[in-house]
Design brief:
α1 runs parallel beside α11, α4 packs antiparallel against α8 and α5 crosses α7. This protein has eleven helices and ten strands. It has a single domain, classed as Alpha/Beta hydrolase fold, catalytic domain (Rossmann fold), CATH 3.40.50.1820. The chain is an alpha/beta fold. Strands 1, 2, 3, 4, 5, 6, 7, 8, 9 and 10 form a ten-stranded mixed β-sheet that branches.
């Protein structure tokens, strides 16, 4: 199980597959395991680097990061450690904030950029939501009730209506997961999200960029993602119909096909089934 010692942190990561490198950055309250639905399909054509962000999963740090720029610097350190000159960077939600910062700070290291279910800045409503969830965790710890409050923001109503057994499976698996962020770290990462703002710096992104959104995402709406895409030079926007905040979980085949097509230089439709 590989770890990287960097900046007072022992960061866990995994590598699988063959081909050009692709870094997958996870969201809040998750870790590298959140990419399991697309891991096999993407690793068939790319070498995947899947880190647990600082304060997440199996990564252990002596101090919290100050901002998402520091998390982007952690990604650079990992590429340095692996001897990789450049990589495509994909980020989901909070991981998308980190991916933006990486592409802005290290354009020569970014061979492509995929931003999934993310925006250039966190909305005040989401900041309030995460603050409430952090307070709930501080009072009660991780409970099934906590996850039943959180997952309606992440999963589409279609999934609740048509695949309730799958929703139950996801909730039960998350409750049993042994590598959840600590209660304290969830609050720290929520504060990090609230501090992210790349709105005035998006034009500094030089890499080819694909922005993917879920058509039924109520946490970071398609409109928020589209506005971000419109401000990134040459970015392509694609909306996965009928899914919520986690297209790679709800429609893994569609997500993998869109990412593979984009990275191979093909055109990706603006509306994905």
């Amino acid at each position: 199980m590989p770890f990287l010692e960097h900046d007072g942190c022992r960061s866990h990561f995994e590598i699988c597959g063959h081909g050009e490198p692709l870094v997958l950055l996870h969201g809040l309250a998750a870790d590298s395991a959140s990419w399991l639905p697309v891991r096999d399909s993407l690793s068939s054509s790319h070498k995947l680097i899947l880190p647990d962000n600082r304060l997440s999963g199996r990564s252990v740090c002596q101090r919290p990061p100050l901002d998402t720029k520091e998390l982007a610097a952690d990604v650079k350190a990992m590429l340095d450690h692996l001897g990789m000159e450049k990589a495509a960077i994909a980020g989901h939600s909070m991981g998308g904030y980190v991916a933006q910062e990486f592409a802005i700070a290290y354009p020569e290291r970014t061979s492509g950029l995929i931003l999934e279910s993310t925006a250039a800045v966190s909305s005040k409503r989401n900041d309030a939501l995460f603050a409430v969830l952090a307070a709930m965790l501080k009072r009660e710890g991780y409970t099934e009730t906590f996850w039943r409050n959180m997952f309606p923001w992440l999963l589409s109503p279609v999934l609740y209506e048509q695949k309730p057994d799958f929703v139950e499976l996801v909730i039960k698996a998350t409750c049993a997961y042994p590598h959840l962020s600590s209660v304290e770290n969830f609050g720290l990462l929520a504060s990090l999200i609230a501090g992210h703002d790349a709105q005035d710096r998006l034009k500094g992104i030089k890499a080819r960029c694909l922005v993917i959104s879920g058509g039924l995402d109520i946490l970071i709406t398609s409109e928020e993602s589209r506005v971000m895409a419109d401000n990134i030079p040459g970015a392509r926007f694609a909306c996965v119909q009928g899914v919520g905040h986690t297209p790679h979980l709800e429609s893994p085949e569609v997500f993998s096909r869109a990412v593979g097509s984009f990275l191979s230089g093909q055109t990706v439709s603006q509306s994905l089934p």
